[in-house]
């Protein structure tokens, strides 16, 4: 067991988990998946296709005939991490295919790593498969190579990401994701529901709904109704809630219609959890970001949400040190956080990203000032988290078990998403527990980000 680190980047997906035996002579492809949960879903789709063609899958370079590196290009630091991963794969294996968000810049990648076999952009599944076929021809055995009905998943069996759309229609100045992944492209609601049903039938007990802008789901297809399901986030949430699994919503912009989701949380149809990227609180900073500048109104919305569903957990991410951010603007953010009392908070220090319009803004903030503001922001967020968790001591809550080892069971409450939020630990009487179990626990102790409890 390990405690949740307070500096964990909020954009990262859980580490990919692959475990399947390899038959003799079966070609094997390694997969290194970097970046956010949306990229992890892309990796799952690629591997599902490869498994269907008879390839074995490895979570690293060991024994692989070639390696796919699914890259992240969200921040310059993420690009550097992706380049390092490509370099390591070349060193350890030598036969590397690059895909993902950074793949939208093939010249940039080849400038650093000219020996890679191929480069494809994000969600270009056919091109990735073509590159694999050239590097390692398939050799399927239809009597042995069986594909699970739910496809290949890179998360533990009991939870799974459910991507409902690609792309984004926002034009935030600090973000290049619309340039890499395009405009909003929603999946038909019946297709989302069919995938969700297969996952639940296969034993998934928690579905994490993801997209670049979950609130905008269905706007591009005019909220079409197909096979009894309407492509609107409220309708989709209600339909998903009928499956009996935990339904957790991520990347929800606070549009007015979000308030229609809150009664579904109060009824228990979906988890009382909203992941909303507020980014900042000062209207001038938000304007420079090209984001809606209505922080005061947002506080009213938060109060209204809590009035309907008092148990709601609010998670968000923020950027400190954005170009032009003054000390007074930063103090406004701290004061806003004091008033908003968000439950789960992540924070980035602003970075220039090649191609982002924010690079050209004046008055960039010095690195040491960004670091100081990040420290002060996280100190306040940590104090809020600690107080909120302390208030849970003595209560009985439902948790889902993620992992069990000789030290105890690592669990999550309804208020905790995998990897990015906290954990609840059971270190006595856990012998009969298994991953995916849902049990009642009395909270006995609280830390800054995590809880400890006992089975009841």
TrEMBL record:
MTTase N-terminal domain sequence ranges: 27-137
NCBIfam families: 30S ribosomal protein S12 methylthiotransferase RimO, MiaB/RimO family radical SAM methylthiotransferase
Residues that coordinate or bind [4Fe-4S] cluster 2: 168, 172, 175
4Fe-4S among keywords: yes
Domain Radical SAM core: 154-387
Binding site for [4Fe-4S] cluster 1: 36, 72, 101
Sequence segments annotated as region (Disordered): 1-20
Alphabetical list of Gene3D superfamilies matching this protein: Methylthiotransferase, N-terminal domain, Nucleic acid-binding proteins, tm_1862 like domain
Protein name as it appears in the record: Ribosomal protein uS12 methylthiotransferase RimO
Compartments, record wording: Cytoplasm
InterPro entries (UniProt xref): Elp3/MiaA/NifB-like_rSAM, Methylthiotransferase, Methylthiotransferase_N, Methylthiotransferase_N_sf, NA-bd_OB-fold, Ribosomal_uS12_MeSTrfase_RimO, rSAM, rSAM_horseshoe
Cellular component terms per the entry's GO annotation: cytosol; ribosome
UniProt keyword annotations, A-Z: 4Fe-4S, Cytoplasm, Iron, Iron-sulfur, Metal-binding, Ribonucleoprotein, Ribosomal protein, S-adenosyl-L-methionine, Transferase
Domain of life where this protein originates: Bacteria
Short name of any one Pfam family annotated for the protein: UPF0004
Single Gene Ontology MF annotation: metal ion binding
Organism field: Pseudorhodobacter turbinis
Biological function: Catalyzes the methylthiolation of an aspartic acid residue of ribosomal protein uS12.
SMART domains: Elp3
């Amino acid at each position: 067991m390990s405690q949740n680190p307070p500096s964990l980047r909020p954009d990262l997906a859980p580490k990919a988990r692959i475990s399947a035996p390899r038959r003799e002579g079966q070609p094997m492809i390694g997969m290194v998946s970097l970046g956010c949960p949306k990229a992890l879903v892309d990796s799952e789709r690629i591997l599902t296709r490869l498994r269907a063609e008879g390839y074995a899958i490895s979570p690293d370079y060991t024994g692989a005939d070639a390696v796919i590196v699914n890259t992240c290009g969200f921040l310059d630091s993420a690009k550097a991490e992706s380049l390092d991963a490509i370099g390591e794969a070349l060193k350890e294996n030598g036969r590397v295919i690059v895909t993902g968000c950074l793949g939208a810049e093939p010249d940039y990648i080849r400038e650093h790593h000219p020996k890679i076999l191929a480069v494809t952009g994000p969600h270009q599944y056919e091109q990735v498969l073509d590159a694999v076929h050239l590097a390692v021809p398939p050799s399927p055995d239809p009597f042995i190579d069986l594909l699970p009905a739910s496809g290949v998943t890179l998360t533990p069996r009991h939870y799974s990401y459910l991507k409902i759309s690609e792309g984004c229609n926002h034009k935030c100045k600090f973000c290049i994701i619309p340039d890499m992944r395009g405009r909003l492209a929603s999946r038909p609601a019946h297709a989302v529901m069919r995938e969700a049903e297969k996952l639940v039938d296969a034993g998934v007990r928690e579905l994490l709904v993801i997209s670049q802008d979950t609130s905008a789901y269905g706007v591009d297809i005019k909220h079409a109704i197909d096979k009894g399901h309407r492509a609107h986030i409220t309708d989709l949430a209600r339909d998903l809630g009928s499956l009996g699994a935990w339904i957790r919503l991520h990347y929800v912009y606070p549009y007015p219609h979000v308030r229609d989701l809150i009664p579904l949380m109060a009824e228990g149809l979906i988890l009382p959890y909203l992941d909303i990227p507020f980014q900042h609180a000062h209207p001038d900073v938000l304007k420079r970001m090209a984001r809606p500048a209505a922080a005061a109104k947002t506080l009213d919305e938060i109060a209204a949400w809590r009035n309907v569903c008092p148990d709601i957990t609010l998670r968000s991410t923020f950027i400190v040190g954005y170009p032009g951010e003054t000390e007074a603007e930063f103090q406004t953010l701290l004061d806003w956080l004091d008033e908003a009392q968000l439950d789960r908070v992540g924070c980035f220090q602003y970075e220039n990203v090649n191609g982002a319009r924010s690079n050209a803004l004046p008055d960039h903030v010095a690195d040491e000032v960004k670091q100081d503001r990040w420290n002060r922001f996280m100190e306040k967020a940590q104090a809020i988290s600690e107080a909120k968790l302390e208030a849970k001591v003595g209560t009985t809550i439902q948790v889902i078990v993620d992992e069990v080892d000789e030290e105890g069971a690592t669990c999550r409450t309804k208020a905790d998403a995998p990897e990015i939020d906290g954990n609840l630990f059971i270190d006595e009487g856990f012998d009969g527990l298994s991953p995916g179990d849902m049990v009642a626990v009395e909270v006995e102790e609280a830390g800054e980000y995590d809880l400890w409890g006992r089975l009841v």
